[in-house]
Amino acid sequence: MVPSRLLSLGPRTVHGGVGRWTQVQRWPPSPRLLSDSCGDHGKHQEPPRKKLLSEKKLKRHFVDHRRVLVCGGRGGDGVSCFHSEPRKEFGGPDGGDGGNGGHVVLRADRQVKSLSSVLSRYQGFHGESGGRKNCFGRSGALLYVQVPVGTLVKEGKEVVADLSCPGDEYIAALGGAGGKGNRFFLANENRAPVTCTPGQPGQERVLFLELKTMAHAGMVGFPNAGKSSLLRAISNARPAVASYPFTTLKPHVGIVHCEDHQQIAVADIPGLIRGAHQNRGLGSTFLRHIERCRFLLFVVDLSEPEPWTQVEDLKFELEKHEAGLSERPHVVVANKIDLPQARAALPQLRARLGPSVIALSAATGENLEALLLRLQELHSQHVGAELRW
Ligand SMILES: Nc1nc2c(ncn2[C@@H]2O[C@H](COP(=O)(O)OP(=O)(O)OP(=O)(O)O)[C@@H](O)[C@H]2O)c(=O)[nH]1
Ligand SMILES: [Mg+2]
């Protein structure tokens, strides 16, 4: 049965000219067109549309790794002083302890999308020094650093935390302990101690934050295979589409709504080329985004000669990056079936890779239903099973 979602895939896009997408003009025309014919332009002007960021600018805003120096707050100093008032000259030691320094805490926040807002250095709040009359200093507050969900925290090569759920926290640097006031050292043997201790410095660490895209499905393919076009066709995400390679420079995640109200996150990952694991093309930077996807969509450009070699090459690159990655549950999606040469190559591709290959066209929307049904199946098999546990 065809899910109802397929019948409402949003405004249909059509292929208009080489490498350009145009939207079908809807009726009635936009208010801006109508207002041209009436007198009071000023009153009914549409608010200026927000200009879409180009892919190049988006890349500048999107940061997926950061080196951060985190320092916990310093503990406050203990104080040495003695109580004294008229007729009570030797009131005893009354120097209070210093407050503890504040920790620096990394917290995964759903609203934060990249590490661009993370600074290179964080200093925790210092504790206050103790005071007279046994007053303890105030402890430094916690300093929260918001990071995106899916941030890996590394110290050197070692992974020390994986903030994969919203609200996950990790204490990146401990605050120093507060010093002791002389009241603390009061003992039977010593009724008038003058000793007090200074606050301890906070912990200092250099951490490497790394963002891995969290999506259920990851689209893997050579540049120009049509990954971004496919994501636009099945979800509300709007990655740039153009006829030149490496149009997509950062991963995009789109949400596919299924008829049973499940939401499947699909990531469009920048194109890989042969030798990506040796840093060719956009390099291995984006291979690590694939690691977190539960299942993969190998998107193949069926109009290219010998399209099956694309799947072999992609699997080779994934395997070189991380052993076993190419074995993940996957679907081979043969795109551009609307082109005659692609349709002719399909039987040969199926003979080599099996009948499970899904042939479709992201441009015309042909056979997208089959992909959505397969996505739903994979989602309930692999993600549903994990949730049940
Ligand atoms: N005929 C046809 N052209 C398509 C189809 N899907 C994508 N294209 C075209 O293929 C070209 C590349 O599409 P993109 O979606 O940008 O490809 P990509 O895989 O995201 O490319 P990169 O971002 O460079 O990795 C564009 O010119 C699209 O118009 C399709 O189903 N049929
Ligand atoms: Mg793209």
From TrEMBL:
Pfam families per UniProt: GTP1_OBG, MMR_HSR1
Region described as Disordered: 29-48
Function as written in the Swiss-Prot or TrEMBL entry: Plays a role in the regulation of the mitochondrial ribosome assembly and of translational activity. Displays GTPase activity. Involved in the ribosome maturation process.
Keywords from the named record: GTP-binding, Membrane, Mitochondrion, Mitochondrion inner membrane, Nucleotide-binding, Ribosome biogenesis
Membrane topology: Peripheral membrane protein
Protein name (Swiss-Prot/TrEMBL): Mitochondrial ribosome-associated GTPase 2
Chief localisation class: mitochondrion
Cellular compartments annotated: Mitochondrion inner membrane
GO CC terms in record: mitochondrial inner membrane; mitochondrial ribosome
